Amino acid sequence: MSLTSRSVIATAISLALYGPHAVAKDCLQRPGIDQPVENICMQAPSPSEINAMPVVIEADYAEAHQDNKATYQGNVVVTQGPRRMEAEQAIIRQPENVVTAYGDVLVTDPQFVVNADRVHANLTDETATMYQADYSLMCELGRGEAGLIAKESATELRLKEASFTTCPVNDNSWSFSAENIEYDQTQPYADLYGAKFAIKDVPVMYIPYIRLPVGEERLTGFLYPNASYGSRNGLEIETPFYWNIAPNYDLTLTPTFMQRRGVLGHAQFRYLNAVGEGSLTGEYIHTDRESRADGAMWAYNWTHNATYAQHWSLSTNFSEVSQFDYFEKGLGSTLGSREDSSLLQTGSIGYRSANWDTTLTVKDFQSLTVDGTSNLYRVMPQFTANYYDLMLPLGLEASIMGQMSRFENDDKTKPSAGRLHLEPTLYFPYAASWWTLESEAKLMYTRYDQEFDPVLNPDLVGLRENATRTVPSIRVLSGVTLEREANAFGSAYLQTLEPKVQYLFVEEVEQTGIYNPLNAGQTGYDTSLLQLDYHGLFRDRQYSGVDYIAPANQFTIGASTRFFDEQYRERFIFSFGQIFYLNKVTNFTGNEVDYSASAFETEFNYGDRTFFTAGLQYDGSEKEIQYGHVTGEYRIGENYLQANYRYISQSYLQQSLPDNDISSFTEEGISQAGFSAGLRLTDSWFAYGDVFYDTNEAIMSESQIALIYESCCWAVSFGYNEYLKFRENLTAEPEYDTNVSLSFRLLGLGGRSGFEYKQASGNALSYGRPFYLNN
């Protein structure tokens, strides 16, 4: 729920008296309007401009008495720019400057349309009264009735026996009403007396008096509730309460009643002050009736960001839960998901100037494992300082990166360490309209002070307590861009050919005394193997972090071709590249090779309806596809069909996760196919669903389907979700969690876009478009 949502009846009144929101055009049906409503809303002049326009009166019969009154009868039409009033009779009295209209009066304005039995207006003091009026808002959903609408001054408005709904004419699915509404446009609120909410003309809520926010200002009060039903938790009802503590502080309390679980309390406190902005969010359930043995459960998150004097920055992100399986309980937590294996607990302070960039960081984790231990390294702390000089002679640029880190781990079989890393760099960039050249030289120095017990883990026997390493590196990258006119599918395109070549030299030095991913059973402190996609071929290192710096004496050759249409939108791209080693390299299977795996990538956009993207990493020496993915989609408006597939070989997966025995959960790597679809069945009905299937293990990973009905003023959705919850081993039967859900929401309270299907599992995979053409 949005934190800017207004109170229940307040939202309705603010729509009626204040501001627009996005709606479907076919819901804006206004009586007596002979042109599209959106034209009136977009082209309307300001009120001050309208007041300066001349008034024109037309009628079948007119009778005027000098300095007294003028009477108009029969098809009376009074216009002033876009304003228009139609009536059977109108009387203008002078010198009072008062107008009275009788007989099926129709008043149209860029903001509203009103039908009334009688209208009485004073043109001098801008007061007006409308009797037995039906009104419709012009530029947003909203209509209603009022026994009396009185504009008592230029800013004061009063309605008696008034109602409001966003439903179309002759549809009273729901409505708000009040015996009396008083509103001063100079104030951020309206006073309602005898307020009621009704469904199908049946009152379901009554409030004797309430002061509600109108406009953008915030005011303490209840926000609109949300109700849903799920087979896991039963009936769920959220009743949020917003407390506007101060202009720079607020608190939202959201108790959620779950029929089968109990009451989950959710609170979010937001603040903005001289030391920054942030929020503190918490959840608490005293007793979960579904798992009583667990007792009370809670979770919280604190985030804070600040800048000071344009140079200093401060940020924190700290989360904690009461138990490791908190997110697996299905409470619908907003602080995490069932896929999380740990929660981040980090803070940093930084200083920046024209040439300096420094950061002090502390990073910890709460492990979401049964024993509470984690194989992730805590950074306690890490200090990074970077110096840049971009104005050296001959166009040279220089930088020096320095970093001091302390790494600790809960696992006693893993070492702790202090690390110092220095990396001075000299860089020369050159660019012409068709040619680029980049040259870079580095010297990487690292010192480790490692603490470990070789008895606990024999894999650490080769480690040294004190280890140093100095690695020089040279990198030269050059590319050209060639263009030509081309024709394809009967259309003209601009085609480019962009070959590029890189030479990289990284001296081979002894690194066995350092805890790094190259050694069996070791992972490194903050280092892991990077994926070798097309762009990764041109990196200057194979691993993230600096615990292992892979030696290199190699050329990388690659090329891309692109097609641009007449509007210079990129419609197609294909890239291919490969590394050629000048010295033989031992791959992960122990064989010596002269070249790396080949990387292919392509993307295609035809007519902004048909999309295709694919990537492939093929190892020719092992004759193995290491990694691949392909996605195709056809989309027209809201309707889409998407099929996708991804593959990672067992050996490549094991190489990327050297500290895990992946054979316990897969024997053939990852091979997953997925299908997603969304279809607008009618103007009111929409359906979507997806399914993901593991083709290696022949089991379904996750599926969901939803059917949504939307009218102009309410919406309901029915959904079913099933996902793989647990599988003890490859031979055991998979255990699934299923949930059926039903959600209902009123539209117009917070905008049409506020309605979304509540995922049945609370964490179901959502639709995404993996298309990244540079349009």
What is the gist of this entry?
The protein is mostly beta strands.
Account of the 3D structure:
- The protein is mainly β and 775 residues long.
- Among the domains are: 8-219, lipopolysaccharide transport protein A fold; 225-348, no CATH class.
- It is 4% helix and 57% strand.
- The strands form 2 sheets. It has a 26-stranded antiparallel β-barrel. Strands 1, 2, 3, 4, 5, 6, 7, 8, 9, 10, 11 and 12 form a 12-stranded antiparallel beta sheet that branches.
- The longest helix has 10 residues, at 8-17.
As a percent range, the share of helical residues equals under 10%
Structural class: mainly beta
Give the N-terminus to C-terminus distance in angstroms. 32 Å
Overall mean pLDDT stands at 83
Number of helices: 4
Strand content: over 45%
The Rg value, from CA coordinates, equals: 34 Å
| Low-confidence runs | 1-25, 750-765, 771-775
- Quickly name the level 1 CATH class of one domain: Mainly Beta
